[in-house]
Amino acid sequence: LAALGAAMLRRSLWLCLCLCSCPARGLRVHEYLYFQVLSPGDIRYIFTATPAKDFGGVFNTRYDQIHLVPADPPEACGELNNGVFIQDQIALVERGGCSFLSKTRVIQEHGGRAVIIADNAYDNDSFYIEMIQDSTRRTADIPALFLLGRDGYMIRRSLEQHGLPWAVISIPVNVTSIPTYEMMQPPWTFW
């Protein structure tokens, strides 16, 4: 019994040393932001996104029903074909082609209230990328969020299957007020 206690103590000390001496990796819980797709119904889930590290604004308002409009072209590195639909809404953009900040500024210039940038690796269902400012010294005022590639792909695929130009979402969602058994999480993502 004493040997078991000593082994547990050594393991606890080793774990403490590792946690205290290793640099922090990944994101802390409070750095996640959640939104819920309300329509279309087949993707009526709560999604997790991460805010940009050092650019963009914050959500000062909760939007109970706002459009999530996929940008056209998806990378949003220049003029948008559907910019009129992004005004006063939130844009869904795909990673690649230009910096995260450039995409955010394009959406801001088209009057978007925020941008959600989905990874272009459609099989990414667990790795969040830290969006940082580029070297141009530009700024952006609207919130910019990073979304897993699998989530972005599934949202766009559902919209295409239903022939819809946008999804209806609520953002941000306070998940601490939702009982665990009522949380509708995407079945393809591990929480």
TL;DR?
Keywords: Glycoprotein, Secreted, Signal. The protein has helices at residues 2-21, 83-86, 100-109, 149-162; strands at residues 33-39, 46-51, 63-70, 90-94, 114-118, 144-147, 167-171.
In CATH, the topology is named Glucose Oxidase, domain 1
Tally of structural domains = 1
Distance between the termini: 37 Å
Q: In which range does the helix fraction lie?
A: 25-40%
The overall strand count is: 7
Continuous helix count: 4
Q: Which strand order does the major sheet show?
A: 1-2-6-5-4-3-7
List keywords for this structure.
Glucose Oxidase, domain 1, alpha/beta, 25% helix, 191 residues, 4 helices
Task: Kindly describe this structure.
The structure is a single chain. By secondary structure, the chain is an alpha/beta fold. The chain has one domain: Glucose Oxidase, domain 1 (3-Layer(bba) Sandwich), CATH 3.50.30. It is built from four helices and seven strands, in the order αβββαβαββαβ. β4, α3 and β5 form a beta-alpha-beta unit. The two termini are 37 Å apart.
Write the topology of this structure.
Elements: H1 2-21, E1 33-39, E2 46-51, E3 63-70, H2 83-86, E4 90-94, H3 100-109, E5 114-118, E6 144-147, H4 149-162, E7 167-171
Parallel strand pairs: 3-4, 4-5, 5-6
Antiparallel strand pairs: 1-2, 1-7, 2-6, 3-7
